Amino acid sequence: MMNREVMELLRLIRNRSGIIVLVGLICALISFYAFIFTQKRYETKTDFLIVQDQMGTQDFYSLSKSAEYLGGVLSESVYSSVFIDELKKTGKVDSSYFPIDERDLMKKWKKAVEIERSPNLGILKIRVYDNSKNVAIGISQGISDIMVTKNYLFRGKVNLDVRVLSGPLTEKNPSVGKILLVIVGGFLVGVIIKIMHLYYSFINMLARRAEQEEYINSSREIR
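The structure assignment produced for this chain is given below.
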């Protein structure tokens, strides 16, 4: 676009700034309620340290890479049927929590448990979400028992030590930070959508104006 058209577009956006902000606020409000109603009420977090005992002449780099690999294996194993079966055996969670259908069970479990890895540090952060505080704590405690005392079920013949660094710590979910992030994100999305709508409307207006000018010029040439 030419400078004149750019200035005209900016003027249009400035004149419509009120409606742009309004659309942003509406999207922020929708995002807020959608986020609140889809989140579980409680979050329980437990941090684990994965340490591989040094054997023979293994250097630090080899040990750290091995611990990184084993951390990945353990984090993936949490989402396995074997892990869930072991969790049931702990008695930390009522059996009614687990759906009978395998597909429904895995779907619910993946929504309930979130894992964050810090490979270079050998740290796993496992978060559990549920509407019941007791259930969230029970699941976290069960996961801790398995990670600490039964991690041999999910690794090879290596000397591995899994320790609880902190937790389980329970707090309301979602956090204020997440809520603010969703609200700001929703507002920006709304603003961008409205600006894009104005932009395409402006482009269509320019196209119609060009057609009209072309028609007028052709009419003059005929005369």
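Interim note for the steering committee: The chain has a mean pLDDT of 82. The helical segments are 3-15, 17-38, 60-77, 81-90, 102-112, 133-149, 176-222.
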